[in-house]
Fold:
Amino acid sequence: MFEGSILRADGPQRRPVLLADAIRAVKSILAPVHDTEQTDVSAAHRRVLVSDLIAGVDLPLRDSSAVDGFAVRSADIEQTPSTLKIIGRSAAGHPFSGSVKRGTAVHILTGGAVPQGADRVVMQEHCEIAGDSLRVNEAGKRNIRVRGEDVRAGTAVLPAGRRVRVEDIALAHAIGITAVQVRQRLRVGLVSTGDEVTEPGLPLNPGQIWDANRSLLKGLLGACGCEIIDLGIVPDEAEDIEAILRNAAPDCDLLVSSGGMSVGSGDYMRRIIEQRGYLEVWPLAIKPGKPVGFGDIDDCPILALPGNPVAAAITFIAFGRPIVDHLAGVTKESARDTLFLPAGFETEKKKGLRQFLLATAVACSTGSRVVPIPHQGPAMLSALTSTSGIAVLDEDRDSVAIGDVIEFLPLTAFLS
Structure:
């Protein structure tokens, strides 16, 4: 699949690769998964649409009332007060079968079909009722939900290449669609590496920690609609790491690992990728998460993330998520509610490096400001549970002053 390194930093300087360059380069050598299948709309959450979803009907299906009141002819209430005769009732699911003629009105409830002949619904609060006699004291607004004002038949309501969200499922059901053609789920093999890592719940040997990375990455991959193949934990033994990745590669569309990507004597992942394929990108000009790489093992793409959990999460969001989206066939991703807000802090940073800070958007008298979590680090999971998003400081900056507009990524955009 790959023909050689495109952005790997070699030599003693190892100049890190800019994030945008890395994403663009990886997309240029990866082909999306093309296999498709039909699925029930109810099961389509997070799946990627193969073709545009076309409405076969108008929405609303018919003119209906936006309020509780009375369906009337506007010509009959040009002068108010006006007196009309009530001739029937229309409720949601129980339309009035007749028509509204001169001098008459139909009692109508919210959602009820507007009867033939009526062109206005007068709010109940603007009326007085005495038996079948209706006194209209004020005409008010038209109060009609017009047929097709939301969706017109024949229009594309969802584009091909969109990852289906909960609200998309509701819209599809509202226009009567029950099945859609989607791309098959990405099969992602997920592995943690390290002698120090063991399964949560097991006794800890001296120097060991419980693995948090797989649960964190499962959540992030699951939000992308991936089918996750849990490869467990592999100790820092080159032969063991190579074996588990080699065996998993034929059955996966992507491999994701954490740990072993730095330059220490026990960091084998980078060398294994180079031996069995190509290390296309390494390292990235980001903080945290510089020792992240992308390449292939036996023609299966591999995203190799850092071992520290916060760094692994941030590098997946910044670098891995765009790659997963591309592989999954996402071309019309819905907005993730990226915000641009003034900074409520000041700091200095290294120019040429994209820095990510766990932060929250705090309300103040002039709106919202982005404020970093006080105590944070690439291994501090408590900071991740205490934040609502990530502040992004781009490569061109060497400092941030209070009031500077910066990018803010709400975490819900990546975990929903």
Notes: Residues 43 and 81 are 54 Å apart (CA to CA).
